Amino acid sequence: MKTIAKRIYIALIILFLYAPIGILMVLSFNESKTRAKWGGFTFKWYIALFQNEEILRALFNTLLIAFTSSLIATVIGTVACIAMTGMKRRAKSILMGITNIPMLNADIVTGISLMLLYISLGIKFGMGTILLSHITFNIPYVILSVMPRMKQLNVSTYEAALDLGSSPLHAFFRVVFPDLLPGILSGFLMAFTMSLDDFIITHFTKGVGVDTLSTKIYTEIKKGIKPEMYALSSLIFVTVLTLLILINLSPADQKKSEA
Amino acid sequence: MTSKNKWLSAPYIVWSAVFIIVPLGMILYYGLTDTTGAFTLNNITAIASAGHAKALRVSLLLSLASTLVCFLLAYPLAMILAGVRVKRHNFIILVFILPMWMNFLLRTLAWQTLLEKNGVINHALSFLHLPALKIINTPAAIILGMVYNFLPFMVLPLYNALAKIDINVINAAHDLGANNIYTFVRIILPLSIPGIISGVTMVFIPALTTFVISALLGGGKLLLIGDVIEQEFTRTSNWHLGSGLSMVLMIFILINMVLSAVFDKDGEGSML
Amino acid sequence: MEKELIQLIDISKAFDGQMVLDELNLNIHENEFVTLLGPSGCGKTTTLRILGGFTSPDKGRVVFDGQDITQLPPNKRQLNTVFQKYALFTHMTIAENIAFGLKIKKKSKSYIDDKIRYALKLVNLDGYENRMPDSLSGGQQQRIAIARAIVNEPKVLLLDEPLGALDLKLRQEMQYELIRMKNELGITFVYVTHDQEEALTMSDTIVVMNQGYIQQIGSPESIYNEPENAFVADFIGDSNIIPATMIEDKLVSILGTHFACVDTGFGTNRPVDVVIRPEDVILVEPSEGTIQGVVSHLIFKGVHYEMEVQACGFEWLVQSTTLFPVGKEVGIRVDPFNIQIMNKPESEDEEAVIIDI
Hints:
The complex is a heterotrimer. Chain A is mostly helical. Helices cover about 80% and strands about 0% of the residues of chain A. Chain A folds into two domains: about 1-40; about 55-250, Orthogonal Bundle (MetI-like fold), CATH 1.10.3720.10. The longest helix of chain A has about 35 residues, at about 55-85. The chains are: A mainly alpha, B mainly alpha, C alpha+beta. Chains in contact: A-B, B-C. Chains A and B meet through helix 1, helix 3, helix 4, helix 5 and helix 6 of A and helix 1, helix 3, helix 4, helix 5 and helix 7 of B.
């Protein structure tokens, strides 16, 4: 009885989280252009999607920014984690406090603060400014995923590698890095997700004429969303879902990243 | 590993100085000056003007309400999830992160379709002979949108904090004669405080400062403080006023940061 | 022996289809120090958890002081547990930890304060009332866990490998402390460990368990000196377990040589196993020994030398205070009462014999 109640509760919450996604998927097959009514089943939006250069351009920008920013953030963040282990407690806690700022701060404040920075530095708004902003808010996610791994790290394995004659760099990549890898991967994944889903910070730091999917959707809201958008997001969602299911099902995944 | 590697922290220190500290300084600068560059407090006191004060009041009310709803929904959920085998840990986190792969604006927009007068939910309700839901374009819809968007940020820290509690600590409480309610109040709840603080922060701050959700689900009738600031920057281009109002928001953020620093020293309630 | 306090009757428990306890029967007496001893996975912790009420058995009954308590939740049982990793409430002070159970019982403030002082004195941590658990060492936390349990005046204290996380020196100290506390409190201790030395040092009764079955129940002396099967002999202390043939009562043929022994009732010409403790193997000049061999290894162990002697195709483990260098020819003698005869297991599984009490 108790377990049934628990299951129903979890099911309701999952329904709540995924219902809008289901709706968007249904809308992507809707013949009618308005969201209000069902006009019959069609694939035409999926075809139209691949002819809509604006949307494809925005998709490309989004993926490029998400990938580049999370990659750079992963490198900076991981290196910072390694560096922090050698720091004094006080310096370390100050740096961790600063790391927490973009996480705890309101996106709108982060967005306008970066916007003011670029303006006063005279940096031209465009892909570059979006990229810099995304790296900034992605680094904390990487640090927060790598840091716990760093704490669990057994320093003696690194010392053992040195003792057995390997160079510090070699020891790091052969002994320390594999231990950190799950944390690094989940940090990257988290950063990628956050970058992909971001609207507010991009909204303030993008230039005229440059759009990611988020900002494109925002401008479309007033005119009415093109159904191609539903088709595209459904495609993205299903792709990710399939990838995740494949990863989770593969028996080789014993190391499993902690997302 | 060793102190020799200290220089490794240089890139991140420089990065956070330029892109975190300096920009915040810019807000302070703009917020405390007028267009001529002279010092003024007018941008901050502007919060007291009728329109702004109302926007802040409404924002606070809606964000507190949605934080409370998130907490009430998430705590039992997190407790159930914490009881699940550890092996499923990653899967549980994925379930809550996965929706973010579909754009947040679109997901919120989909709620319009769900909530509309002739929307999906009302169709389902009338099928069940239940009264129709009339919450679209009301504050209730905005709260729903906030809860929907920020619920994962409440669930994950709570889940992490609760999953960390040693089952034997709970067993020990029972062993010493505590019933389930007493154990919950005296042991489980206090031990999950880091998760609560972190979850509340992660929901309250974005809810307080959002500017899209109200436009999408509130029918644009209610102006939140986030909307006001956004307009100052993108339409009226009064950066000084926008910065000043942001500084007011930052007071709430600061309170939250201090709270998390006090109650969650080891980052135990972190989301990841 | 005093009166029976706890009876476990036909207890069975499986996890995920894996049998952990199979029809276990055990009686525990009042004021007894009982140790459940066995390798990990032998079912000892499950037995303890069933006693504490944290796991319910699939089959069987738990009787406490004449009452069936099988379905009683932990908070209604008159016994308290000291958990493996202490399980202290980290958000409460030491005093609050100790007072936890008493506050639930709605005891008066002065009673609680007295109890806290008494308990801290008992565990040698006077004055620690206002410290937080995190600021204490492992050994100190363990004592607090004991104090927290005993202030409730349980009739039985359950201890789940309480010394497992401590270092050797501290562990030995705590063993004496536990014996002292038990004598002072005059209650029953049920103690779970995989450490045979701990079990031998502290217990009145040892219950050796393996694969969900009780292998042997007895005093430390009887378990050590008269192991009933190869598992017990092997698990408790070092031993030479040698295949042999029982010629007749009080005569056994070990590796082809006849040895006098004291056991009877094994029949004639029956294959058996004999157990001879390394300290019971006497090394003498070759001419004086029952059998002869050559010393192949020698290690100095502090209190004695440990040697391996090749004799009649078997490697004998020997402990002796007299040194015999490697390569020396020696004779081996064993006193009849030091030869322990055991029935041979008929198959691998048989090593886990059910022993009725």
